[in-house]
Amino acid sequence: MEANQSVFDFDKEVDRTATSSDKWDKYKGKDILPMWVADSDFQSPPQVISAIQERVAHGVFGYTHAPESLTEIFVSRMAERYGWDIQPEWVVYLPGLVCGLNIAARALTDEGQAIISPSPIYPPFISSAKFAERPLLKAPVELENGRWLPNLNHIEDQLTGQGGLLQMCNPLNPGGTVFRREELEATLEFAEKHNLLICSDEIHCDLILDKDCQHIPFASLNESAAQRSVTLMAPSKTFNIAGLGASIAIIPNADIRARFNRAKRGIVPGVNVLAFTAAEAAYQHGEGWLQAQLDYLAGHRDYLMQEINALPGLKLEHIEATYLAWIDCSELPVDNPFSFFEKAGVGMSPGLDFGNRKFVRLNFGCTKKTLEEALLRMKTAIAALDR
């Protein structure tokens, strides 16, 4: 039985300063609120914490493999949430999603074949092409009716017809777009036309803030989509267990799956025992907590949009998913908005890391108190520009 949603306290201030936290240690000893890397400040679901404690109490932490029960839960989850019938043998466990992006870049392209990526985008998309030593083509992400969408037509004349890899990010990071079926179908048509394989990062698929939006896994569109794709998912962002390292690649095509597994053989470690334990508990028992978190984050999103769009020089489009706000600072009279706000005590992600230095990305996976303080500091800094 799920715990009552009313017992989840997302306003609880959890001190992370003595936990070797990447997020909080970046500004250790400084009066700067860390609102950058994509982990939240919320305690994970109580069932996850209990499951880890129980496993730790066992006291033996030898080599381990994926529990069949976890795979069964994940297969059922895909069917129930998305109507996507996957087979257990399609599931490949990974110690993180970023390594999945890099494995796909190396395994699914040959020398000279291009990797196509949206831009701006989560930085490991760009670096995966660099590390694989493949040419990179950037499809500009443009605003269409208040939603950020990649423009694949922009790079079509640069394609050679020799195949390659198209990287997708759904929901989009940054931007928070949840792709509609017709948009995914247009992407599939583009891939079919140019003989492209697809790697779809869907790590934020559980963090849909709009009740009228539905995540659709790209590979669930039809058999053509399934047979040309690698789908990457994880419980990490959803349940704030990213530090444990448990991610999942779903690869229906046996040849692509073999290539993917060959590329990681002897290099990529297995998933650790506590990560498996946390993932299973999260997927099996975390739904009540997740729904409460989504309500809390949607309230943050609405408050943030109201406040940001009231500030001169800033603009924030509607965020359909994720707890990441892509803030347009192009009208702000400063050369480097990231540095400007950092000096004001708000440490966001620089837009340049994603592909546009006139933006910043703000992580609102935090308490309301922290968000209010961040906005107060931003308001104060902008007001001081007019003095």
TrEMBL record:
Its EC number is 4.4.1.13. Its cofactor is pyridoxal 5'-phosphate. Pfam families: Aminotran_1_2 (PF00155). Signal peptide: none annotated. Residues 41-375 form the Aminotransferase class I/classII large domain. One of its GO terms (molecular function) is lyase activity. Keywords: Lyase, Pyridoxal phosphate. It is an enzyme of class 4 (lyase). Coiled coil: none annotated. InterPro entries: Aminotransferase_I/II_large, C-S_lyase_PatB-like, Class-II_PLP-Dep_Aminotrans, PyrdxlP-dep_Trfase, PyrdxlP-dep_Trfase_major, PyrdxlP-dep_Trfase_small. Belongs to the class-II pyridoxal-phosphate-dependent aminotransferase family. MalY/PatB cystathionine beta-lyase subfamily. PANTHER family: PROTEIN MALY. This is cysteine-S-conjugate beta-lyase.
